[in-house]
Amino acid sequence: MVFLTGLFMQVTLTAAPFTATAIAQATQTEEMERRANVLRSLPEWAAKRQFGSQKTYAPMEARAIGSYARGCLAGAAALPEDGNHWQVMRLSRNRMWGHPDLIRYLESFARQAAREAGWSGILVGDISQPRGGPMLTGHASHQIGLDADVWLTPMPARKLSTAERENMSAVNMARPDWMDVDPAVWTPNHTKIIRLAARDERVHRIFVNPAIKKALCREAGNDRAWLRSVRPIWGHNYHFHIRMGCPAGMAGCEQQDEPPEGDGCGQELTDWLARQQKAIFGPKPPPGPPRPPPPPLSVDALPPLCREVLRAR
Length: 313
Ligand SMILES: [Zn+2]
Fold this sequence. Notes:
Layout: H1 2-14, H2 19-24, H3 28-40, H4 47-52, E1 63-67, E2 70-74, E3 77-78, E4 82-83, E5 86-88, E6 97-98, H5 100-116, E7 122-124, E8 147-151, H6 162-167, H7 188-199, E9 203-208, H8 210-219, E10 230-232, E11 239-244, H9 267-281, H10 305-311
Parallel strand pairs: 5-7, 9-10
Antiparallel strand pairs: 1-2, 3-6, 4-5, 8-11, 9-11
Helix pairs in contact: 5-7, 8-9
This protein binds zinc ion (ZN).
């Protein structure tokens, strides 16, 4: 664990995509510090500030507005902290909100995971903020209440305490060279639970680390159609990310393109594994002069309806 933390701090400097993973695992204290730091330099009009300070949902008809990485959420529902087969992690972040269709889906997925994948249940990480929108820390997407992170650690048979939910870490599934999963922690049930999610017609895409996709490609056998929706991405070695499609007929919800044809186990995956290994272990470019960060996204850059979502009382 110590090794990994050090690794991520190093990598953060050169390969920004890995910061998302580090942030997903942050403890309550680390997360509070990060938020305070971001807020210090953020103007009033920044969408992150406006949406990041919302404490409860917008009482309007439920709508996912805009796109996964630029939008907001009206009429959100919260996933209850505990169900028979799920527990919500990192409660203090207040990111257990989603479009009601996603919340219903997660509740049924948790039951299914217990029945069909041999998990006692699931640990749920970030979904969305109460009104969606950009966040002060972590995640480019998760803005319209249709994305959810599920830990790759099964739910324990007991109820976790609040402190455990804030500070417990999930298990890194990647092998030390990041070219495959670590056989000491990866199990056949990991393949089963991801396959269950991928087969559900409500699910549009699933994001996992390239090392995990490699394992899934190997373990899928002859049944390969479900692999198409499982896409490699940076991070996602502690949790997998479930993305629902836009609810049927929902105007203003921007559906992502279908994933490319095929199982995605060929050249694309090989390239991803090489790119990731280079980012982690390759030579680091010499530090250049400090570059000012790009200006934050303003509320005006989101769909106009997001203003109403912010105002709704
Ligand atoms: Zn995610």
